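The record is kept unedited without comment:

——
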Amino acid sequence: MVSYKVASLVQSLLIIFVGLSVVDFGYSLQLLLEDKDLGINNALFPDDTTEFWNAAVMWAYSFFIVALLQLVKSDAK
């Protein structure tokens, strides 16, 4: 049961983190200014030119981890 709670906590934190990152991206896109954003993505990805690790890749990995944890949780019940 402890592993179920830990998986739920990790899922919640990843979803909140990705949500804030998406809001940061949308806010900067709405303003059309690179220097007027919340700063979350700039802190994590200061050089967003790399194709191996950027905000979109981080979102994809996070959703993949959340989906895997959901499968683990459904098997643990």
The longest helix spans residues 2-31. The mean pLDDT is 80.
